[in-house]
Write a structure and sequence with these properties.
The protein has about 160 residues and is an alpha+beta fold. It contains three helices and six strands, in the order βαββαβαββ. The structure holds zinc ion.
Amino acid sequence: MKKRSIAFELLIFNDVRDMEQEDQMLLEQADIAQKGSYSPYSNFRVGAAILLKDGTVIQGSNQENASFPAGLCAERVALFYAGANFPNQTIKTIAISAAAAKVEVKKPAGPCGSCRQAILEYEVKQNSPITILMKGQSGPIYKCGSIADLLPLSFDHTFLGDS
Ligand SMILES: [Zn+2]
C-alpha cells in the first residue's frame, strides 16, 4: 500500500485591498452580478464574474426554477456564456461572491461539485489554469490558482480515449 497526500496552495486575504487590482475589480463585478440572481426559493444569491485574457468581463448569477434541477449556478451561467460567445478566448479568472438573505455568509462559498467539473473542462480545453476567487458577505477571501486544485483525481477527456 502507498499513501499519498494531496495538497494545494490557498491564498487567504482578510482585506480585499491587499489583493491585486485586477482581482479586486473582478470581485466587485461578482458582487454586482448578484443583482441579477433569481433565487426566490433559496434566497441565496450568487454572482460570478469571469475575466478573459483580452480583458472582457462576463457576469453570471444563479437562476433558480420551481422545478429545482432545472436551475443553474452562477458560475456555469457565466462560464457557458463565455464558452458560447468567446470560444477562442482564454479564461484567466473566475470570481464568485455569495450572499444569503437569512444569515450572513461569513466565509467564501466554493463552487459546487458540478461547477468545479464544468470549470475544469475549460481549464483542460485551454491548457492553462483558471484562477478561482471566492468571497462571502464578510470574512476572508480565498484565491486558488487552478480549479484542478479543488477537484483532485478528476475526470477529463483522457478517460474517453482521446489523449
Ligand atoms: Zn455550482
